[in-house]
């Protein structure tokens, strides 16, 4: 006789409704009274189906309804039988169709941000420097990258090209030429191509802003908040802060570029952790559409690295902003805290990651030389080179990178309920901290679990009290 036990899930509540976050599938399951009763019995230990039916019908539930609910709970992996469920590890189909290509059009920058990974620990540790490497991508290389993206994205109706650096606008001539070429080639191939770029905003001019707006180019500005925070680490080589230069340019961009939402990307460090003050300034004073935050990627011995106390402070402030986000969502208003939106979108989609992100899979980075890397953070790092535009991808190297990054290769993650949305964390962070792209980012585990739980509660509140707001995540995914 089959006996049942509890499966793997994380319980949470929102809006007066109890839910389960189902770890094996990444799905969210709303509990009704009958499910509550069955799970309550299994919480005390394993039970046979007959026992469950007998105990539950004694509470007034009909036997056919109980049987159907047991079946439903089993199929959803909320409960398991004595043998559990087999671990299904699917190999990544190769070659995997590309979705996004990040062109590092230059490895040069007119700022000298003290935390920049462009010259960080991974470059030193692998003895890979920029000596002898091209500093600026040529138009020929950029066009070859476009051809590579279109040729290696079979089955994709839409693809994405993003421009990065260094400081992207130091090579704006190539950015502009590449957009014109890519649009024509994508049209000929029957595909739609979308464009975005990241910039520190110091080189924004009226003609550049006009071009970005007219061509619907998405823009993300790297900025760390009001002047006293931004200028702690985002400085020119002479130590001068960058805020006074970029603030008026950002205001002009936001005033004129209305064809795409403009976002701010903030790097949090031990000196810059006042999340709420940064958000208020960037969203409410400067007028960014969205503001996103990411802790600095660095060795723990660096003075600007965020320690455990700092991460707790960040989580507390993230939670407060998330509650503001919820209040806006219940009024059908957009808030602009993109860390919440990004996580809610993944939860809504039932994301269950085998790998932390699309790096080395549906996303690749390209160096000025034409070398191919798993993502923009590994560009120009010889150790992580996957190939070159001229010779193609070394599939053996690519498969090795992906296999080491698979969640099944990270035993520390196997008992973590948050693994569907984390899968061990950023490859580059893992390399810098542990010297291995396949290592789980154990220093972030408590933070990730805490933040995911907050977002689950926010999701539950929205689902219970204003479910139509969830349609925004379908729209956001389509952008």
Q: Can you characterise this structure?
A:
The chain has helices at 33-43, 49-57, 63-75, 121-125, 139-151, 172-188, 206-214, 227-233, 243-256, 275-286, 308-330, 338-349, 395-405, 419-422, 427-434, 445-465, 471-478; strands spanning 3-6, 9-14, 17-22, 27-30, 47-48, 79-81, 100-104, 158-164, 192-199, 218-222, 262-268, 290-295, 363-366, 371-373, 387-388, 392-393. With 479 residues, it is α/β, with parallel strands linked by helices. The protein has a ten-stranded mixed beta sheet with strand order 12-11-10-9-8-7-13-14-15-16. Strands 5-1-6 form a three-stranded antiparallel beta sheet. A hairpin with a 3-residue loop joins strand 15 (387-388) and strand 16. It starts with a strand and ends with a helix.
In summary, what is this structure?
By secondary structure, the chain is an alpha/beta fold.
Top keywords for this entry?
single chain, 479 residues, alpha/beta, TIM Barrel, ten-stranded mixed sheet, three-stranded antiparallel sheet, 17 helices, 15% strand, globular
> Could you state the CATH homologous superfamily of the domain at 100-335 and 359-378?
Aldolase class I
CATH class of the domain at 100-335 and 359-378: Alpha Beta
- The termini sit apart by 51 Å
CATH architecture of the domain at 100-335 and 359-378: Alpha-Beta Barrel
